[in-house]
Design brief:
Helices cover 48% and strands 9% of the residues. The chain has 128 residues and is mainly alpha-helical. The protein has one domain. It has a two-stranded antiparallel sheet with strand order 1-2. Helix 2 (19-40) crosses helix 3. The longest helix has 22 residues, at 19-40.
Length: 128
C-alpha cells in the first residue's frame, strides 16, 4: 500500500515522467511503503507521504539537470573534455534510503538504546 502517488512524486521532480517511469514509480512507491513501515508503522499519514515522495524522487534523481543526484561538488571543462563530480557519502545514488530528515519525520531521530526481555518479565511480575 503506497503512501504517495505518482503525481506526488512528479510534483517535486524537475521534469515529466515517461509512461515507463510512471510504472517504475508505482513499484518504487510500494517498496518505499514497506521500508517506512519497517521503521515506524505508526507515523502520521502526512509524514509517510512526504518521506515516500522524497525517497522515490531521490531514486529517479533530477535528470533534467546535467548534475548527478547526490553530487556535492563538481567541475566541467570544455575543449579538454574533463568532468568530475564528488558524490556525498550520505546515501547511494539510485537507491532508496531514509535520509536523516526522513527518519526525523517518521519520529525516529537518533534513538540509541537497548532492550532486554528480562525487563518485560519484571514488568509482568510486578503487575501480577
Amino acid at each position: 500500500m503506497a503512501y504517495a502517488t505518482v503525481a506526488d512524486v512528479q510534483g517535486v521532480m524537475l521534469r515529466d515522467m515517461t509512461a515507463d517511469e510512471e510504472v517504475v514509480c508505482t513499484n518504487l512507491l510500494d517498496q518505499a511503503a514497506v521500508i517506512i513501515d519497517a521503521y515506524n508503522k505508526d507515523a502520521s499519514a502526512e509524514a509517510k507521504k512526504v518521506v515516500s515522495t522524497r525517497m522515490v524522487s531521490r531514486t529517479f534523481g533530477s535528470s533534467g539537470s546535467d548534475i548527478p543526484v547526490g553530487a556535492t561538488q563538481g567541475s566541467m571543462s570544455a575543449m579538454g573534455y574533463s568532468q568530475s563530480w564528488t558524490i556525498s557519502s550520505g546515501g547511494a545514488v539510485g537507491e532508496m534510503y531514509l535520509a536523516r530528515i526522513d527518519k526525523k519525520l517518521l519520529g525516529l531521530s537518533n534513538q540509541v538504546g537497548t532492550h532486554s526481555p528480562v525487563e518485560d518479565l519484571c514488568k509482568a511480575s510486578q503487575s501480577s
